[in-house]
UniProtKB/TrEMBL annotation:
PANTHER family: ADENOSYLMETHIONINE-8-AMINO-7-OXONONANOATE AMINOTRANSFERASE (PTHR42684). GO terms for biological process: biotin biosynthetic process. It comes from Pelotomaculum thermopropionicum (strain DSM 13744 / JCM 10971 / SI). GO terms for molecular function: adenosylmethionine-8-amino-7-oxononanoate transaminase activity; pyridoxal phosphate binding. Keywords: Aminotransferase, Transferase. The keyword Cell division does not apply. This is Hypothetical membrane protein. The keyword Transferase applies. Pfam families: Aminotran_3.
């Protein structure tokens, strides 16, 4: 079924203002994720609404994944946890699922902590 312009409204229903705020937050998250593409070990970023998967790779050009035994996803989430952010990995993919009630400054903090954790663990800092 094609959802068109209404694909994200099912999580923001009830009031027109709520839909506007939801769309704004999704767009803000999408914009904030663009800088992650600069990181040399981010192979792909997938987003659907407020759900995000950041794939970590050993080689960006070939998309060669990190060896399973490197446990890179787990190491990144532990680094983020040191800074107060609880996120989870699915193997080499870092999963972000911020709640819709999160403020823009809180969303910025999620992005900053995640970015810095990836950069530190992958040796870019």
């Amino acid at each position: 079924m094609e959802m068109g312009a209404y694909k994200n409204e099912n999580v923001c229903t009830g009031h027109g203002a709520g839909i506007h705020v939801c769309r704004f937050k999704i767009s803000f998250l999408e914009e904030g994720l663009k800088r992650f593409k600069e990181l040399s070990h981010v192979g792909d970023i997938r987003q659907k609404g407020m759900m995000v998967g950041i794939e970590l790779v050993e080689d960006k050009k070939t998309k060669k994944p990190y060896p399973w035994e490197d446990n890179i996803g787990h190491r990144v989430i532990l680094e983020a946890r040191k800074n107060g952010l609880v996120i989870r990995p699915l193997g080499n993919v870092i999963v972000l699922m911020p709640v819709l009630s999160m403020t823009i400054p809180e969303l910025e903090q999620v992005l900053d902590i995640t970015y810095n954790a990836i950069a530190k663990v992958t040796g870019e800092r």
